[in-house]
Each structure stands twice: as C-alpha cells, then as structure tokens.
Amino acid sequence: MTAELVRGQNHPLSQARLEIRVSAGKPIVAGATLSDEQGRVHGVEWVAHPGSPTLPGIEVSKQAAADHRLACDLDALPESVHRVSVLLALPSGVGGPVRFGVVAAPFVAVTGLDGSEVASYTVTGLDVESAVVALELYRRQGAWKVRAVGQGYAGGLAELLADQGLPQAHQLAGSINEAVAQGLARSVAAPPPRTAEGDRSRHAAALGQDQGGSTSQAGPGQVPPQHGHPGGPASTASGAGHGGPQSGYPAATPPTDPSAVTQPAGPGAGGPVNYSHPGRQAAAPPPPPPTAPPAQPGQPAQPVAGDATGWSMEERLYNQVWGMFEDLARATAAYRSAVDFAESRMEQELDKVLSDPRSRIGGQGDAARETARAKHAELVDRARQALDRDLAQLTAEAEVVEPALPPAFARWDNPAWHGYRVPMEIPMALRLGDLHLPESAGMSIPMLVRLPLERGLWIDSGRTGSFDGSIADSDDLRRLAMDTAVAHAARLLAVYPAGEYTVHVIDAAGSAASSLAPLVSTGVLAGPPAVGAAGVTDVLARLTQRVDLVQMAIRGGAADSLPPDLDTAEQLLIVNDFPHGFDDRAVTQLRYLADEGPAVGVHLMLVADREDAAAYGPLLDPLWRSLLRLTPVPDDHLADPWVGHTWTYDPSHVPPGSQVLQHVLTQVAAARRSWNR
User: Fold this and answer.
1) 298-349 confidence digits (pLDDT tens)
2) Distance between CA 363 and CA 354 in Å, rounded?
C-alpha cells in the first residue's frame, strides 16, 4: 500500500533500486544532490542535473519536462553519501512561470522497478519559490528511508544549492539554466487531461492546497499509518556505478574549467523581469540536526535528541517520535511475521510426516517431529534476537529523547513542567499518553496528536474486557475518568498562549466537584460548571450560536463583522457523565458541535460509559464514531491501519501527591489576568 506522505513525514525503503517519478503541469527541471551526514554537498561533482545527469547510484533527466523518471540505486552510492535530495526547479529566462504558486502542485512518487508505489508526496503550500527540495532519501542507522521535505527557495537553484553548502552554487545554477535553455526545444509538454482514476497530473492539481493530518490526525497514537524500521542488513546486490573510483566522493565528470561556468542570465538577457523581492524567503531552511558522538567500530551510533529533519527543535523532536513509532511498529511486524512463518512451516512438515504411513510408526516419525519443532524454535529465537536488538536501540533512543521533550510532548513527571512558562506560540502537537505493544511492554512511545484538534475526545468511564481489574468499583472508575479529562484539559490550557483557549464544563448532576477542583480553584474556567437542565441548555446554546456566527462570517468573507464580545479563542466543552441530564434537543446540539465545531475552533471532551448510554438507542452512534476514544486505565483499543497492530494505550496521569497541575494552572490563570488588563 502506498504511503501518502505529508511534509516532514518519513517512510522506510525496503528496496535498493528505485524510480522517483515526478509529475507537474508545466516543464520543470529535476535534479538530485548527494550529501554527507551533515547534509553538506562537497562539490559540483555531487550534483546530478541536466548538464551532468549521471552519478554513481543516481541518474536524472537531461532536459526540462512535465514528467520525469529518476533512477536510483542505493547500494551503488558511495559510503560517504548519507542523503539524496530530489530537487525541482522552474526553468529561468525562457518566458515560462517564475514561481510555483501559479502552477499545479508537483506530485512526486517513489516506486519499485515494477512500478509499484512505495511512497508519494504532493508538494503543496508553495508560492514565490522557484526551486524546491521535494524529497530526500536518507540513511538512518544502516537503513534507508524517504522523507517528504517540500522546502522552497525564492532565490531559485542558486539559493537552494548554497543552502546545502555548495561553494560554487551560483556558477552551477547558471550552467544548469543554460543547459536547460539549450535543450528546451526537446522538452516534454504537459500531457493532455485524462479521466483515468490513477491520473497523477489530475491528482497533483486537485491537491494544490495545503495538506495535513494522518490517521486520526498526525501523530503517533491516533494512530499513524506509515511507519517502519527495515530490519536486517541492507541488500548487497551490486548495481551500476560500482565500477567507479573507490574514493570517498561520488565519481562524475567535473566541468572542464570551473571558472568558465556561465552565470545566470541578467535582466538584460531577454528573459522576463522578476519583480519578486530578491532577499525574501518563503520558508526558513531547517537548522542542521545535532551530530552524535562517533560510534565505536562495530557498535551502533549513539542516539541524539532532535536528529530528525525539521524547521525547529520542536518539529525535529516530533518527527523523531514518529520515527521511533515507525521503528517499533515495523520491528514488531517483522517479528510476528517470522513467528507466523515458523509455525506454518512446522505445521507443513508435521502434516508431511503424518501423511506418510511409514513414518507414523517407529522412531522415524518421532525424529521428524523433533526436527520440525527444533527448526521452529530456532526460527523464533532468531526473530526474537532481532526484535530484542531493535528494542534495545529504541530504548536507548527513548532515554535520550524523553528528557529533551518540551512540556507539550512531555509526561507530567518530566522536569520540563517544573520550569513551565505560558508559551507565546501554539505547539504543533500535544501528548495524550503512551503506546506500547505486547512484545515490547517496557518500551513505550509518546502518543502525540496534532493541534488544533481535528476530533473530539471521549474518555471512557465504563469497564471493558481489557481492563486489568485494578479498579473494582465503578464509581472509582468514573472519578478516575474525570481526573483524566481534567489532566487533558489542563494540558490544552497550558500549551496555548494566554487568552487563546477557553474551557467550559457541563456537570449536570454536580458529581465531579472533587475532580474539577483544580480548574475551579485557579479560575481558568470560562464560568462555573453548568449544572441541571438549565445549565446544559445555556452552555449548548452559546456554543452552537458561536459556531453559526463564525461559519456565516467565513462563508460571507466577513470575519471582521463578528460581534466584538465574541470569544475568538479555541473552545473546549467538557461534559461529565454524558448523556445524563441531556434531552433530545441537547443531544442534537451536541452532535452538531461534534460535526461542525472543530472546523471553527469548538471541541468536545465527553466523559461517558458507552454501555450506560446504550439505552438511548442508535441516536448516539454517530457521535461515538466521531470522537477519539481514550481510557483512564491502560487498554488495548487503538489499532493502526498500516500493519494492523493493536496498541495498548496508557493514559498520562499526574503523579500522586504532585503539585505540578496546580502550579501549571496557577501560571495560566496569572497570565490570563495580565492579558486581560
């Protein structure tokens, strides 16, 4: 199944010989750079472009075209190469488009030699940029992965190459533009529109807007679909390019005279005038990731927090957590597959023994059965050793990453919360707990969800078959569910800037006073918890009115016409013991908020027992399906559709006796008072 990537997301590569297919609505230039561990390109001989299309392990098109096919053999790359960046650029000085914002979003796919897609990425969000790093293939702990980058450059190829550390960036960009201009007559025009379902040109144009999210949003635990850590050694099959010089640099024919490389054509060269600001960048390049200490020979590299690609340390840590989730999912899938194969093989061998009457008697049959069981045990042991090796590596990485996480990604017992200050910007994600698998009970991955929330939360206060039975009383379970809801609400309040998040509470029966005490005593709620039928009606009426007003303003293009007293902050409604105290009209309003609210900043958090609510019939089923189910105790109810794992969710609780929740909410309340002055 193809992994459809979004910016910053990665995916494992199980094949060494690949094709990279590019589809765009206009002729564009496609190239590739080879770089070291720090992402630096050491010279022009490390760049494959139309003027020099072939390097060891990589071959690109010789001309501008609407569709490209780049060949890549990862095994043929020199050992000093750790990253292959796929570059796309608009031809300059030929009268065509000068920025990607006016053309269809390029579509890039990594495929096997048989044409099967491994991963794809639509490069969206471009505007004034004329060159972009679309994808990068990179080596991580001995395995290759592909990452969607989508980093654009308003200064074109010269700025892109200079950002990768190439000293001769401007000269090489000029030679590339000249080679493209000379061969433009041979360029391939855009194909005519097609109606086939798999038409990539149409697909690229249809996805011209910004994309985001993943399975249940975009973070480990919602749960992401594309993950994987290729187990085992890399393929050693030989490929084209091995016959080159055995040096630390890629072998290629350099320009005959570097000083003779032409400069880009100036304004007077007959090309169109570029009115864009010459120093303006649409996106800042990501800072280089930190480097790990050199590994000892034969030992794996030491893990480093923030070694993934990103535009900030927060984004690099987020992507690194994604990578850890991928590694654990893939390693466990490989182990389970190996065990299934061993069992299937043993059953086949035993069936073969039993099908022969001569082997049923005497010692021959017993010996055959013992041999089959011994082979099974050997295969399982080898698979377990590989899994344990991967788990040890992931555990070492987690021990480095966990202390470095910012408060939004950290557990409540992380020291980052003790130095908490109200942030000035909204983080990209929030931690709602941890995930682990039965084969790796000691190894957990942070469950991160993207912000703002795209789905509401349902905190299950009922008992399920997977609960461990440590809480026998149903009232204790309901109280713990409400405590969990309060902890999640406190996190949301803590990670938003002052005045940008508002929390409402409906406690129709007034049974959650003790759990709500931290929110009430610090004054961070929009008002006292609503009780009784009148309170439920009032809160729901105000929030549904807010959704209606904002929707009408957006549709009419009149956002400035909203009432001055309208709270423009993100809204969260916590409902305890739902649907107690709700009539049919209130349930309908709540379903409306669940469906329409997230798009305009209104989110739900329901604390309820599904079995108790079953008496209301199928009316509530659409509401349950629209929410992300969480539990107050560990429970194995989250499944990822990529490999089919059932993940055990472990909620994030405040440590017993800790005052961290009170400290954080007090800071939030103080910042809100200062903001309202």
Assistant:
1) 566 678 888 888 888 899 999 999 889 988 988 898 899 889 898 888 888 8
2) 13
DSSP assignment of 52-113 equals: B-EETTEE--SS-EEEEEEEEEGGGS-TT--EEEEEEEPPSSSSS-SSGGGSPPPEEEEEET
CA of residue 194 relative to chain centroid, distance: 32
What's the pLDDT score for residue 299?
Answer: 61
| Distance of alpha carbon 90 from alpha carbon 99, whole angstroms | 7
Structure tokens at 64: 């501008």
CB-based contacts of 594, cutoff 8 Å, min separation 6: 456, 604, 623, 626, 627
Find out whether 150 and 236 touch, Cβ atoms under 8 Å.
no
Full 3-state SS string of 285-343: CCCCCCCCCCCCCCCCCCCCCCCCCCCCHHHHHHHHHHHHHHHHHHHHHHHHHHHHHHH
pLDDT band at 18 (very low <50, low <70, confident <90, very high): very high
Describe the strand order of the beta sheet including 602-608 as a list of residue ranges: 501-506, 570-578, 602-608, 456-460, 627-630
Is the Cβ–Cβ distance between 160 and 90 less than 8 Å?
A: no
d(CA 463, CA 470): 11
Residues forming beta bridges with residue 65, ordered by sequence position: 28, 188
**Letter for the amino acid at 28?**
I
β 117-122/3-5 pair status: parallel
